[in-house]
Amino acid sequence: MLAERNALLSAAARQVRITAIKAAALFGESPKGGWSAEIRPEDSIHAIIAVHTDAGITGYGSVFTDGRLVQAGLQVLEPLFRGETALEPERVSEKLHQNTFWMGRGGTLTHTISGIDIALWDILGKVTGQPVGRLLGGTYRRRAQPYCSLLMEAPARMRDVVADYRDRGFRAFKIGWGPFGRADDSKLDEAIVRAAREAAGAAARLFVDAGASDALWPHGLKWAMRTAEMLKDYDIGWFEEPLRPDAIEDFCHLRRVSPVPVAGGEVLTRRQAFVPWLVRGAFDIVQPDVTKVGGLSEQRRIARMADDFGVKFVGHGWNTAVGVAADLQMAAACPHTDLVEFIGGSAYLDGICTEPFALDGEGYLTIPDKPGLGVRLDRDKLARYTPDSAALFPA
Ligand SMILES: [Mg+2]
Q1: The CATH number of the domain where 129 resides is what?
Q2: DSSP one-letter code for 211
Q3: What 8-state DSSP symbol labels residue 342?
């Protein structure tokens, strides 16, 4: 018994050092965003980060921004992480944040640190033999419901797309962006939502995302109030980004009067940015993006803070299989997070792992209980989407 305890203590005390951090920009299959300046397949909007260690263990993270920015960010951060322990994600990430305050906090460096932090949690899980969710706070659930995130389409097409993903086993859906609100046609908006509800079925969960963080969003509070009234007739679980992302006063007012819950926060970064939104009561559901906000260390603190304010936390890390894996581990570690965002048909989600995520018969994803994040990247599959695949794997 004593020998066993000593062996555990020595393993815990063993130093595992960061030897290198590499980033690979993903190209070629970037999914459409429904943005007014639409993403092209050859645009880089996602990057995978690998943290290599002297123990031969590599951890993985994901970043939702142009991979070339991430590679530049790593060059800036390198003197701060070189030789650091790989077993203290929260302290090391905070060190990176605190020492770069003068270089545009909340932007590229915060995004880059997000990927590093996720990878460090992956390493800590692998070294300790524990799933990351347990290290983050425990196992409140063993599966989570993925809501299939779909771009809004004209009503007939919307009906077909939702029906297609329903046939693939999804039981929760979010429709957003595209023509919604942008055609200035409230009848069209309602027809899209009606088509989606009819195709999803009365029992499905359905959410609506206006995507008002898009460039030059044309509407204000009155539009959001009118639209929220319309949505209540279709049993909509939340109305996401109904207002421009900085309109905190309008969010607070909308939340008080809206018959449907109000969601937002995907463009905010750093935990500190969420404080006024929670204190002032702007959201029913808060949706920080683990691949931008500062990683799992930051995400956990935001999720705990939200819970203390009675606000539901649902992650926004749908961008890659690694982002979804991080969201699943957070769902395990949070008492009320039963959902993860999941973008149907994305190559960066389905096409980069040795074992892609698969829905069970009730439309849920099992949360991996393997050490770390519980996903294994496939070198050959990744090579289809990045010239830097080799840098992500130990030599
Ligand atoms: Mg959104």
Answers
A1: 3.30.390.10
A2: -
A3: E
Question: How far is Cα 193 from Cα 204, in angstroms, rounded to an integer?
Answer: 13
Contact status, residue 45 vs residue 37, Cβ threshold 8 Å: no
**How far apart are the CA of 86 and the centre of ligand 1, in A?**
32
- Expressed in angstroms and rounded, the spacing between residue 124 Cα and the centre of ligand 1 is 30
Expressed in angstroms and rounded, the spacing between residue 382 Cα and the centre of ligand 1 is 26
Say how many Å lie between the CA of residue 78 and the centre of ligand 1.
32
Q: In this model, does residue 224 exceed pLDDT 80? A: yes
Residue 209 CA to ligand 1 centre (angstroms):
6
Mean pLDDT across 122-137 = 98
Same domain, 117 and 24: yes
Instruction: State in Å, rounded, how far the first CA of the chain is from the last one.
Output: 38
Domain count, the chain: 2
Domain that includes residue 106, residue range: 2-133+380-392
- Domain co-membership, 143 together with 198: yes
Cα-to-centroid distance, 5 and ligand 1 (Å): 47
Q: How far is the CA of 240 from the centre of ligand 1 (A)?
A: 6
Both 232 and 318 in a single domain?
Answer: yes
Distance from Cα 217 to the centre of ligand 1, integer Å: 14
The CB density around residue 307, as the number of other CB atoms within 10 Å, is 16
Task: Please give the distance, rounded to the nearest whole angstrom, from the Cα atom of residue 31 to the centre of ligand 1.
Answer: 14
- Each residue's pLDDT tens digit, 161-219: 999 999 999 999 999 998 999 988 999 999 999 999 999 999 999 999 999 999 999 99
Confidence of residue 7 (pLDDT cuts 50, 70, 90): very low
> Sign of the C-alpha dihedral, residues 375, 379, 385, 386?
positive
